[in-house]
Design a protein that fits this description.
Elements (H helix, E strand, L loop, with lengths): L2 H22 L13 E3 L9 E3 L2 H6 L2 E7 L5 H10 L6 E7 L6 E3 L2 H10 L2
Parallel strand pairs: 3-4
Antiparallel strand pairs: 1-2, 4-5
Length: about 120
């Protein structure tokens, strides 16, 4: 597969994730709008793949997202990359998708269980 095709697959997943987050918080996602509160990072740039510009929205969605659209999975490599891009006070989150499958979310189990217990 060409590098450009791989990047396009990754970009589509990043846009999908940004759209999902925007839908949860009832905001519009527009990648072309520099004032949009949620944005997909350009391919090849350092940092989280999806970033939140709006501080109020960031407090409601305290995750730094790493997106991977690959056939093979290097789970702990993805987790380490996500951790290295996570800002203080946030939690890392990996979204992985492979062809003909739904995306899955991977996050720290202790964080997940603590959040579930606190939301009961």
């Amino acid at each position: 597969m060409k590098t450009s095709s791989c990047k396009a697959k990754g970009r589509r997943l990043q846009y999908w994730v940004a759209e999902q987050i925007a839908a949860i918080f009832n905001i519009e996602f527009n990648q072309q709008d520099d004032l949009c509160p949620i944005h997909s990072r350009e391919m090849g740039q350092a940092g989280s793949d999806v970033y939140i510009r709006d501080k109020e929205l960031a407090s409601k969605f305290p995750f730094d997202v790493e997106c991977k659209n690959t056939e093979n999975i290097s789970l702990y490599k993805y987790i380490e990359q996500a951790k290295s891009n996570t800002k203080k006070g946030n939690q890392w989150l990996v979204v992985h998708k492979k062809n003909n499958s739904k995306p899955v979310v991977i996050l720290d189990a202790e964080y997940f269980f603590k959040k579930c217990i606190n939301n009961q």
